[in-house]
């Protein structure tokens, strides 16, 4: 007898169950355009320009307050000093992305960055020499209306001071570029991990479904073979029903969930085959709440339960039997129950009850899809036989467990 003790489905050890709910959203979020590659786009240039304009304005306000310089002149001075950084920043970001300071390449990369640093500060020095020098702190002329040209030594001192002050700016940009680069790398690795785990969960579910199909086909083909000579018309009808089942199965091969209405339509083909096998001995009763017809259920979830009930509730007894299929809301869950009036257990088993292929695959599929949100219980029926009840989350929209490559790079 294929039975279980009716324990709730355990939380999966891996994150596969949660991925079927969370992976698509996280993968789409992680698949956005990398930040460190954004220097190629106008938005990045606007951001860089706005950043350095802000620095220039802050520097001008500082000069105006601390050195009593004219704000207009101080702003012009700051713009001229920081204008090179508007063009240098994208170059520094690109260099940082191409020559990262990592353990295996840090020597070569450091040399490249030092060379770029020298060139950058040289350009800053030229701009400092060509721009009007800022007023000395103790200059008697603090009105900003007249600025005398400094002596060569004083000019050299001003240029050197500006280069020295802006040296940390270069390495600050390098550090920020590396931080963005490493952040994007970690995000890419997480995206790949989620993608692999999502495909792994999909493969597990597909493998479980493929285990059910041969099991069902084997039983059906045996039944057809037994009818070919004595009841050719019934055998032909069973073959047509089987072909319809295979067609529906192939059409839904890319889906893990269907509506209960679709699942019941699929199940009707299987019930027709079973009724052909057992004739008047087989009766089916359905109690389906109309509100439940649009709820999403795992595809082919009822077929192994009905097959199990037919095998142990109808086939094992001489007289007529029935199978009852119930679908109804149960709080925030959908309750599906398949019961029969078979003989059930004639005596208490000595050891723990075991599960056959159908129930064990059903349990594994529920575990992969819903984790601890689904339960599967098997208990003695009120009218004899057994009752198999499963509960799954009440949801009217399907979940997507595989994200296309277009979504990943969009």
Q: What is the topological layout?
A:
Blueprint: H1 16-30, H2 42-66, H3 71-98, H4 106-130, H5 152-227, H6 232-251, E1 257-259, H7 260-278, E2 282-288, E3 296-298, H8 303-314, E4 321-330, E5 333-340, H9 357-370, E6 375-380, E7 386-393, H10 405-409
Parallel strand pairs: 2-4
Antiparallel strand pairs: 1-3, 4-5, 5-7, 6-7
Helix pairs in contact: 1-5, 1-9, 2-3, 3-4, 3-5, 4-5, 5-6, 5-9, 6-7, 7-8
Describe what is shown at a glance.
The protein has 410 residues and is an alpha+beta fold.
Keywords:
410 residues; alpha+beta; Heat Shock Protein 90; 2 domains; two-stranded antiparallel sheet; 10 helices; 7 strands; 58% helix; rod-shaped; disordered C terminus
Total strand count, please? 7
CATH fold label of the largest domain: Heat Shock Protein 90
CATH class of the largest domain: Alpha Beta
Q: Which sequence of strands runs across the widest sheet?
A: 2-4-5-7-6
Strand content: 5-15%
Number of helices: 10
- Biggest β-sheet description: 5 strands, mixed
N-to-C terminal Cα separation, in Å? 51 Å
Poorly predicted runs are 1-36, 134-148, 401-410
Broad structural category = alpha+beta
Number of domains: 2
């Amino acid at each position: 007898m294929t039975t279980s003790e009716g324990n709730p489905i355990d939380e999966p050890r891996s994150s596969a169950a949660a991925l079927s709910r969370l992976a698509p959203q996280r993968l789409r979020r992680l698949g956005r355009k990398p930040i460190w590659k954004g220097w190629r786009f106008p938005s990045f240039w606007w951001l860089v320009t706005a950043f350095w304009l802000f620095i220039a304005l802050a520097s001008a306000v500082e000069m105006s307050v601390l050195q009593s310089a004219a704000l207009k002149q101080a702003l012009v001075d700051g713009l001229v000093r920081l204008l090179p950084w508007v063009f240098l920043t994208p170059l520094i970001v690109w260099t940082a992305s191409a020559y990262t300071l990592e353990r295996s390449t840090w020597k070569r990369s450091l040399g490249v960055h030092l060379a770029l640093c020298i060139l950058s500060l040289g350009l800053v020095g030229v701009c400092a020499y060509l721009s009007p020098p800022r007023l000395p702190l103790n200059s008697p002329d603090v009105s900003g209306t007249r600025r005398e040209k400094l002596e060569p030594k004083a000019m050299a001192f001003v240029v050197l001071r500006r280069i020295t002050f802006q040296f940390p700016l270069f390495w600050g940009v390098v550090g920020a570029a590396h931080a963005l680069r490493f952040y994007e790398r970690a995000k890419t690795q997480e995206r790949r991990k989620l993608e692999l785990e999502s495909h792994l969960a999909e493969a597990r579910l597909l493998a479980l479904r493929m285990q059910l199909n041969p099991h069902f086909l084997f039983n059906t083909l045996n039944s057809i073979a037994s009818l070919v000579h004595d009841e050719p018309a019934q055998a032909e009808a069973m073959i047509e029903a089987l072909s319809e089942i295979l067609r529906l199965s192939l059409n839904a091969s890319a889906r893990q969930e269907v509506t209960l209405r679709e699942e019941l339509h699929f199940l009707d083909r299987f019930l027709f085959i079973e009724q052909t096998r057992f004739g008047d001995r087989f009766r089916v009763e359905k109690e389906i709440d109309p509100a439940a017809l649009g709820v999403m259920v795992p595809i082919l979830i009822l077929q192994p339960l009905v097959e199990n009930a037919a095998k142990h509730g109808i086939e094992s007894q001489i007289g007529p039997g029935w199978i009852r299929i119930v679908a109804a809301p149960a709080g925030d869950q959908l309750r599906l129950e398949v019961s029969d009036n078979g003989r059930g257990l004639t005596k208490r088993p000595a050891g723990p009850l075991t599960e056959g292929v159908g129930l064990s695959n059903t349990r594994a599929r529920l575990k992969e899809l819903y984790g601890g949100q689904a339960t599967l219980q098997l208990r003695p029926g009120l009218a004899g036989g057994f009752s198999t009840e499963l509960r799954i989350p009440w949801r009217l929209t399907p979940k997507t467990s595989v994200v296309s490559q277009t979504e990943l790079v969009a």
